[in-house]
């Protein structure tokens, strides 16, 4: 469970924005993630019309895929460029409006109303703003947040989910002494302590 030199590593919002601006987005998957397809039944648990949350969503193609199945998608992303690229790449018309509770934040919503993406820091969100969710697809969020912010992140996520929700979490396993992250190494024991 040695996290090597990663414990103190901090990636700023500006660095994330720069990754998008420079097109340095190796974390984006054009085809969608095979693990979501593999474990879709676990996420949906026989239910339809779910509210599904995408933390640090980027321009994940899975948002459109799940929306097309009849689910309501809410995402949060710091990069306005990523959000706008999502809508343009899927030829989805959208409207843009401020989020009164969060200074400087914007919410981009498909005109069909089933995809709402918040452009702000994830830590500015709360259930009073975005409501509660039946499912979470965390493909690259926990492994992207700074190690020192994991407890804060997990507490927020627990606050955003309904009692009977499903939470799909993808992490990466490697020797943290050989890679500074992100993605960060999150040991299984830490996932247990964060989420119970």
UniProtKB/TrEMBL annotation:
<keyword id="KW-0963">Cytoplasm</keyword>
<dbReference type="GO" id="GO:0008119">
    <property type="term" value="F:thiopurine S-methyltransferase activity"/>
</dbReference>
<keyword id="KW-0949">S-adenosyl-L-methionine</keyword>
<keyword id="KW-0808">Transferase</keyword>
<protein>
    <recommendedName>
        <fullName>thiopurine S-methyltransferase</fullName>
        <ecNumber>2.1.1.67</ecNumber>
    </recommendedName>
</protein>
<comment type="similarity">
    <text>Belongs to the class I-like SAM-binding methyltransferase superfamily. TPMT family.</text>
</comment>
<dbReference type="InterPro" id="IPR025835">
    <property type="entry name" value="Thiopurine_S-MeTrfase"/>
</dbReference>
<feature type="binding site">
    <location>
        <position position="139"/>
    </location>
    <ligand>
        <name>S-adenosyl-L-methionine</name>
    </ligand>
</feature>
<feature type="binding site">
    <location>
        <position position="77"/>
    </location>
    <ligand>
        <name>S-adenosyl-L-methionine</name>
    </ligand>
</feature>
<dbReference type="GO" id="GO:0005737">
    <property type="term" value="C:cytoplasm"/>
</dbReference>
<dbReference type="Pfam" id="PF05724">
    <property type="entry name" value="TPMT"/>
</dbReference>
<feature type="binding site">
    <location>
        <begin position="121"/>
        <end position="122"/>
    </location>
    <ligand>
        <name>S-adenosyl-L-methionine</name>
    </ligand>
</feature>
<dbReference type="InterPro" id="IPR008854">
    <property type="entry name" value="TPMT"/>
</dbReference>
<dbReference type="GO" id="GO:0032259">
    <property type="term" value="P:methylation"/>
</dbReference>
<dbReference type="InterPro" id="IPR029063">
    <property type="entry name" value="SAM-dependent_MTases_sf"/>
</dbReference>
<feature type="binding site">
    <location>
        <begin position="16"/>
        <end position="27"/>
    </location>
    <ligand>
        <name>S-adenosyl-L-methionine</name>
    </ligand>
</feature>
<feature type="binding site">
    <location>
        <position position="56"/>
    </location>
    <ligand>
        <name>S-adenosyl-L-methionine</name>
    </ligand>
</feature>
<keyword id="KW-0489">Methyltransferase</keyword>
């Amino acid at each position: 469970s040695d996290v090597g030199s990663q414990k103190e590593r901090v990636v700023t919002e500006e660095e994330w924005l720069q990754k998008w601006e420079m097109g340095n987005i190796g974390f984006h998957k054009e085809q969608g993630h095979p693990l979501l397809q593999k474990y879709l039944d676990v996420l949906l648990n026989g239910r339809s019309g779910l509210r599904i949350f995408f933390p640090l969503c980027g321009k994940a193609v899975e948002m459109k895929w799940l929306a097309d199945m009849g689910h309501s998608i809410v995402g949060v992303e710091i990069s306005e460029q990523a959000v706008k690229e999502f809508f343009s790449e899927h030829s989805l018309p959208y409207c843009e409006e401020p989020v009164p509770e969060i200074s400087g934040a914007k919410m981009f919503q498909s005109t069909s109303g089933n995809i709402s993406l918040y452009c702000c820091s994830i830590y500015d969100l709360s259930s009073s703003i975005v409501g509660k969710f039946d499912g979470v697809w965390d493909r690259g969020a926990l492994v992207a947040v700074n190690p020192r912010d994991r407890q804060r992140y997990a507490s927020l996520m627990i606050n955003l989910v309904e009692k009977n929700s499903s939470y799909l979490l993808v992490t990466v396993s490697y020797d943290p002494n050989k890679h500074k992250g992100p993605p960060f190494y999150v040991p299984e024991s830490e996932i247990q302590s964060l989420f119970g």
